[in-house]
């Protein structure tokens, strides 16, 4: 995929986002496009930054570290988001690499992020990953776990929860997952009526290449787009939900 292709894809996707936002009576500016760079070579990532993509997302800490070395100072021109599962023993590196963590999905991870953030005198921005569809293969809090999680997170002063994230099931017709996006928004709307000491639930991270227009119509503020922007990933990377090795059992239960 050439740089010209990336540029053309970017402007087409931005138009589609804008049209979907208008259909739902929102401003196109309310939606941020995150370019998902997993499996994309550093030259393409640098090109995307050059042509004005300001927010980029990785799903693996290890890959992000390698790419940071390859990109050099160009990397600092974008805001970096972590969208994949974060193992507790990689939190320290993750805080060096990312500004926003979209995949906060269990309590021990929250306390570890807070502990590391405190040590660095930093406030960490995170989203709670919610398994709206209830698929066994998906990470995330069950919808009913979100409210108690927010209550508990009130004690973690160096962690700010900025919203909710979900990964919809892969389907051929994106209309099939509209109810998933709608339920995440309704959950957010209900919880946002309460005042939280260190949460501000303005963000909804939902929508990928195959379903982002539907997600935007349902209220997405952050859409995570890989293949529609950069082309197909090498098959080794084809499974977007691949995890970085097995996490410890107690961690998964957190
Ligand atoms: C890979 C990935 C995406 C982007 O997927 P595409 O279908 O290539 O747009 C979005 N979100 C998460 C969590 C991912 O792992």
Summarize the structure.
The chain is an alpha/beta fold and 254 residues long. Helices cover 39% and strands 17% of the residues.
Structural class: alpha/beta
Question: Would you tell me the overall average pLDDT?
Answer: 92
Query: How many DSSP-defined strands?
Result: 8
Distance between the termini: 41 Å
Number of H/I helices: 10
Instruction: Spell out which ligands are present.
Output: pyridoxal-5'-phosphate
Estimated helix fraction = 25-40%
Low-confidence region ranges: 240-254
Multimer state = single chain
Element string (H = helix, E = strand): HEHEHEHEHEHEHEHEHH
**How much strand?**
15-25%
Side-by-side strand order of the widest sheet:
7-6-5-4-3-2-1-8
Write down the Rg: 17 Å
Describe the sheet with the most strands.
8 strands, parallel
List keywords for this structure.
254 residues, alpha/beta, 10 helices, 8 strands, binds pyridoxal-5'-phosphate
What does this structure look like?
It is a single chain. The protein has 254 residues and is of the alpha/beta class. It contains 10 helices and 8 strands. It has helices at residues 3-23, 42-50, 61-71, 91-97, 107-119, 146-153, 178-192, 212-217, 227-230, 249-253, and strands at 32-36, 55-58, 79-82, 100-104, 124-129, 159-165, 199-205, 222-225. It has an 8-stranded parallel beta sheet. Helix 4 links the parallel strand 3 (79-82) and strand 4. The N and C termini lie far apart (41 Å). Residues 240-254 have low confidence and may be disordered. The structure holds pyridoxal-5'-phosphate. The site of pyridoxal-5'-phosphate has 15 residues, from strand 8 and helix 9.
